[in-house]
Structure formats: structure tokens, C-alpha cells
Amino acid sequence: MSFSLRNPYSIYYLTAMKTKSFLLCLLLAISANAQIVYHDASAFPLLGKATETTLTRYERLPDSLRNISRKPLWELGRNSAGLAVRFRSNSTRIAAKWEVLLNRNMNHMTPTGIKGLDLYCLQDGKWLFAGSGRPQGKVNEATIVKDMLPKEREYLLFLSLYDGVTSLSIGIDSLSQISGPATELPVRKKPVVFYGTSILQGGCASRSGMAHTNILERWLNRECINLGFSGNALLDLEIAHVMAGVDASVFVLDFVPNASVEQIKERAGAFYSIIRSKHPDTPVLFVEEPIFTHSRFNRTVAREVKDKNETLQAVFRSLKKRGEKNIYLLSSEDIIGHDGEATVDGVHFTDLGFMRYAKVLYPVLKKRMKD
């Protein structure tokens, strides 16, 4: 059909298009001038918890361990690493108000990674970065993304890695709506459960979404539970019991950078057996210590890494010899690449290091995840 001002269909079409454009501009103008209204995030699903029996909502360890676990372990369990809120909204902007537990600062990790928030949006089945909530201190407020078209979107909001979150509210336009997710992605049935060190907790990602467990949660579209405890992955057996309480698809044991040779010899078998007693068929993946970049120069570190990896290998062979099934060992060889550019300080990963580690883990986990 040709378009002409003499053609009544053309006139109708142009009028309809002008009306639609006008209404859209009007809606955008109204939305832009609408006030932000905050909604308590406790109304929406929280991913990444091994147990619901925590002292407060945004913690990782059960309250029953408060007077049982070592003090530093317990306190690290109050960090919100790996926790994420799922929601849906048609707002043209997403904001957040949050308060952190400690207002922690470190000289080798960004504030956005330590105590910030990271927002992702679901587009065609994939999670795309939408923006960061940049912290100002203990009490924070930030507009994470704005000037969007007013349509329904699914969101995933990752919480702070190295601080606790004591309160959280999500802000939207006053004329918009917010609700729980309409689709269960990431899938929450049979999550992947990780246990490990400061690296697992997310040190030193520039923002919370770049910790490798959070990367893998998006890539696998499967809930991941982060039980990383900076400097304190010492094979405390109560953590094995916490892990055993989860109906997981895979258990990942990544404790070697913290545990000594003696601790690996004495506790690794018992730690594994606690999990295996509750989950006789679930895959368990042991991970060697990465070949840290400064071990090329520091002979003491190089020897420690070699000794601990050889000890883990001996434990693994022992388990295989006694007939254990569905256990796997991930070599440290390719975890962070070979150019020496994947860490902040020779040990803790940059975003590049986390991305490389996630790429190594992804096919291993994808192959062994139980539906």
C-alpha cells in the first residue's frame, strides 16, 4: 500500500503513530517526574542462602553456630557474599537504600566490591549488567539505572561481598509496580554449593557481580551458594554440616589456599564424609590451589602451593582407592591463566581472574549438575 495524504489509510496510520508517540512521550515525562518510592526487599526472594535459620535475613550461617564457630568464621558469615534479591518491575529507574554492618574499607579492593550492590537484568534468557549501587558509607542511597522505557523487566540484585547488609529497600517510580519474579531464573532447585577462602568470598572483585560464584550463577542460570570465608576456610566441620543440609547439584570444595598441609591431612576426609553421608550420589569437586603469580618469584610461596596441592592429590587418591564415586579434582594449572595479570596482589583475583576462573569451572559444573 502506498502512503499518500490523499489516502485515508495513510492519514489514519500517521495519526495513530503520532498519538502513540505522544502518549509514550507523555508517559516518559510523567515517569521522569514521579517520585521514587522504596519497597522493603524482604518482600522478594533471596538467593544464595544455605539455610533460612540465620540471625538476620542477609547472613549466611545458621544462628545455632553463633557460640560454636570460631569468632572470625562467625563474623565472616555475617557478610552477604553471594546473596541476591530477585524482583520484577516496570519502572523507568531502579534505586536502592541499604545499610551495611561494618562500613569496611580495604586497600586492595574497591568500595563497590566490598559494600556496593550490582544490578542485572534478564534479556533473552541472559543476565546483562544494568548498573552498580555505589556506597557512600554505612548508610547508602543510589540510583542504579534510570531513563529506561517503562516496561516489565526481571532483575537480579547482588549484595555486598565483604560487608554485611543490615537493611535493604528497592526504589521505583511512584507510578510503577514491583513484584516477585515471574520466572524462576536462576533455577533454585538443586543449587551449586561452594566452600572456600577469601577468593571464593569475592576478593578482590571490583563489584559484587564479578565474584566467580555470581558469574556462574548467571551463566548456569542456577542458584549458587557462596560459603567463602576470608582466611578461614580451615575445614571447620560445622560448615560441612551446613553444606550437607542443602540438596545441591554439585558441591565445590575450594579450601586449599587457607588450610595447611596438616589441616588438609587431618580434616579433608572427615569434611568430605559429612557431606557424602547425606548425599551419596551428588558430585563433589575438589579444587587445587591456584598457581599464584608471585610464586614465580617467592620460593616459600611456591613450595607451600606445591606441598598443599600434592597433599590434596593424596587425599583425593585415597578417597578413590576406597571406592568413592562422583568425586573430581580440578587442576590448578589453568585457573587464572599464565600471563600473571589476573590478581591484585599476587593472590586475590581481579575481575579478569574471576572471569578466567569462571570459564574453567563452567564446563566442569555444567557437565555434572544434577537436574
From TrEMBL:
InterPro entries registered for this protein in UniProt: Ester_Hydrolysis_Enzymes (IPR051532), GxDLY (IPR032740), SGNH_hydro (IPR013830), SGNH_hydro_sf (IPR036514)
Stretches assigned to the SGNH hydrolase-type esterase N-terminal domain: 37-178
The entry's keywords: Hydrolase, Signal
One term of GO molecular function: hydrolase activity, acting on ester bonds
Pfam families: GxDLY (PF14607), Lipase_GDSL_3 (PF14606)
Annotated signal peptide: 1-34
Domain SGNH hydrolase-type esterase: 189-366
Highest taxon in the source lineage: Bacteria
PANTHER family linked to this entry: SGNH HYDROLASE-TYPE ESTERASE DOMAIN-CONTAINING PROTEIN, THIOESTERASE 1/PROTEASE 1/LYSOPHOSPHOLIPASE L1
Official protein name in the record: GDSL-like lipase/acylhydrolase family protein
Native source species: Bacteroides stercoris
